[in-house]
Specification:
This is PHP domain-containing protein. Residues 3-65 form the Polymerase/histidinol phosphatase N-terminal domain. The protein is α/β, with parallel strands linked by helices and 271 residues long. It has a domain at 2-87 and 170-267: Alpha-Beta Barrel (TIM Barrel), CATH 3.20.20.140. Helix content is 37%, strand content 17%. It is built from nine helices and eight strands. α4 (130-139) packs across α5. The model has no long low-confidence stretch (mean pLDDT 94).
Length: 271
C-alpha cells in the first residue's frame, strides 16, 4: 500500500486543485493520502475527489517557537468543527492582510505586482501566503524561481517579510483535539534551534518521514518510540517546480511504517 499523508492544493499554497491532485494521486498509484492545506479545510468543501482513493481529512496549522516556524498537522479532523471553522476564517483574513502588506513592500521596492491578484486568489477559497507572492515575482520576471524569491526577499526577517501573530503550539494542539483529531509535529528536520523545546509539547505524533528529514529517519523514529507517539510521513507535495518532489508519488510511505496511525483511523471508523 502506497501512502502520502502530507500534501497541498490551491486551497493554500499548492499548484493543483483538490480534483487535480487526487486524480494525480490515483495515477501515481497512491492508495491513501491526506490533504493538509495551511490553516484551511477548504479542500473538504465543494470539491469532488477522484474515485479509487482514500482521503484522510487534515490541516497544517501555523505556530512558532522563538522565531522558528513550527507547523502542527491535524489528522482525522472534522473539517466542519465550529472551532476549526472559526480558526480558518480568522486566519484567512490575517493571511490576506499580511499578503497585501508584503505586496505593498514589493511595490515600494520597484516590483510591479498587482494587489488585486492577491484578492483574486482569495476569492477562489482557502488562504493566501508568501508562496503565492513568490510565484507572482517569478511570473513578473523578477526571480528565476520560487526558492530565489524566498532566499532574497521573502525569508523571515527579509526585505519584504511581514510578521503576523500565530496561535501557540498548545493552542493548535487543543484545537485539533477539539475537532476530533490527532496532532502531529510536522517536518521536525526543519527546526534548527528549538527542536528540544518543541518536543516538550503534548503532540500525539511526529512526522518521521519527510523529504527534509532524510538522513535523520532513525533519529525521529527513536523520538517517536520514546514519547509513544504515532508515526506519520508524507511528501509535503506542493507541485512547485524546483521543489522536491516535483512528481507526486516520488516520495511516499508504506503501510507498515505508519501502521499505528492507520489503525487509529480504522478505530475511528474513518479508514
Amino acid at each position: 500500500m502506497k501512502i502520502d499523508l502530507h500534501m497541498h492544493t490551491t486551497c493554500s499554497d499548492g499548484v493543483y486543485t483538490p480534483e487535480e491532485l487526487t486524480s494525480m494521486a490515483v495515477q501515481a498509484g497512491l492508495d491513501i493520502i491526506a490533504i493538509s492545506d495551511h490553516d484551511t479545510t477548504a479542500a473538504y468543501s465543494g470539491h469532488d475527489f477522484a474515485p479509487g482513493l482514500t482521503v484522510i481529512r487534515a490541516i497544517e496549522m501555523s505556530s512558532e517557537c522563538e522565531d522558528e516556524d513550527v507547523h502542527v498537522l491535524g489528522y482525522y479532523i472534522d473539517p466542519h468543527s465550529p472551532e476549526l471553522t472559526d480558526y480558518c476564517r480568522q486566519f484567512r483574513k490575517k493571511r490576506l492582510h499580511r499578503a497585501l502588506e508584503i505586496v505593498d513592500k514589493c511595490i515600494e521596492r520597484g516590483y510591479n505586482l498587482d494587489r488585486k491578484s492577491v484578492e483574486d486568489l482569495l476569492d477562489k477559497g482557502g488562504t493566501v501566503g508568501r508562496p503565492h507572492i513568490a510565484r507572482m515575482l517569478v511570473d513578473g520576471g523578477y526571480c528565476p524561481d520560487v526558492k530565489t524569491a524566498f532566499d532574497t526577499l521573502l525569508y523571515r526577517g527579509g526585505p519584504v517579510y511581514v510578521p503576523y501573530k500565530r496561535w501557540s503550539i498548545d493552542e493548535c494542539i487543543g484545537l485539533i483535539h477539539a475537532a476530533g483529531g490527532v496532532a502531529v509535529l510536522a517536518h521536525p528536520g526543519l527546526l534548527k534551534h528549538t527542536l528540544s523545546q518543541v518536543l516538550a509539547h503534548p503532540f500525539d505524533g511526529i512526522e518521521v518521514f519527510h523529504p527534509n528529514n532524510r538522513g535523520r529517519f532513525d533519529e525521529f523514529l527513536a523520538l517517536a518510540h520514546k514519547h509513544h507517539w504515532l508515526i506519520s510521513g508524507g511528501s509535503d507535495f506542493h507541485g512547485v517546480s524546483g521543489r522536491f518532489p516535483e512528481t507526486l508519488g516520488l516520495f511516499s510511505v508504506q503501510e507498515q511504517q505508519v501502521a499505528d496511525f492507520l489503525a487509529l483511523g480504522k478505530k475511528k471508523g474513518i479508514l
